[in-house]
Amino acid sequence: xxxxSATSSGQVTNGDSKxxxxxxxxxxxxxxxxxxxxxxxxxxxxxxxxxAERDYLKGRLAAAFRIFGRYGFDEGVAGxxxxxxxxxxxxxxxxxxxxxxSLIKKSDLxxxxxxxNIIDGGEVRLLNAAAFMIHGAVHRARPDVLCAAHxxxxxxxxxxxxxxxLDMITQDSCSFHNDHVLYESFNGIVLAExxxxxIAACLGDKKAALLQNHGLLTVGSTIEAAVFWFISLEKxxxxxxxxxxxxxxxxxxTVKIHxxxxxxxxxxxxxxxxxxxxxKPLFDVIEKECGDDYxx
Length: 296
Fold this sequence. Notes:
The chain is an alpha+beta fold. Helix content is about 35%, strand content about 15%. It contains eight helices and ten strands. The chain has an eight-stranded mixed β-sheet with strand order 6-5-4-3-7-10-9-8, sandwiched between helices. A two-stranded antiparallel ribbon has the order 1-2. β5 and β6 form a beta hairpin. α2 (about 130-140) crosses α4 (about 195-205), α3 (about 155-160) packs across α5 (about 225-250) and α5 packs across α7 (about 270-280). The longest helix has 27 residues, at about 225-250.
């Protein structure tokens, strides 16, 4: 169903010869011109060989860390991105503790089981305990999740100190319409299994969580989607912090997008495939800048 702003109760011609009460989502465009649809997004690669899929995905995960490094999402040794292993789905690959995002290669990644044991990977076999507690719980609770991303990005952690969810104030924020949660607890570094399970339970079937006084967490059915949702959520936090400050300074509030319009927009830009496709330029740029270094 079209949102409220996509319909009209008056006599609107929109350039057509006869009045019509059905108009496109963009006002002022004739119905005939509005028939041009968004192209169907391509999709991620499909593999019949699970070992070939593993090798490919490890390369994409290494690229994801390079992207996080490029965006400055590193904070000392904090932050982690995990990928469910297609060969052994009850295990996942993660960055070794203490290796800079911008230097990570495919061969550096370590494989961890759901008991926290490192069973394969590079020379540095140090596991961030918080990474295991959070991501292990998410991967166990969400079989649909291939990838989970978390770091202490500056605008994300700033916004998370407010103890509130995003307002729908921009088109981009509509990607998270009814698809993100607020985890209203902070008990220090996540070193306990219960805390990880609580975060996973709060996340539910959503794609993003605002961890109060902590930072952002995003998940996806592809590595690309999880990475794009994280970057987009970070920018949405930045936009809302700026907009709230500007509006508040004038004694006003930001203009919120109507719930129906936000839901309508979500169907185009908030889907898993849209997330995957939106990340394509990010991965293309990293490949161009890094060459095959991250694939070593």
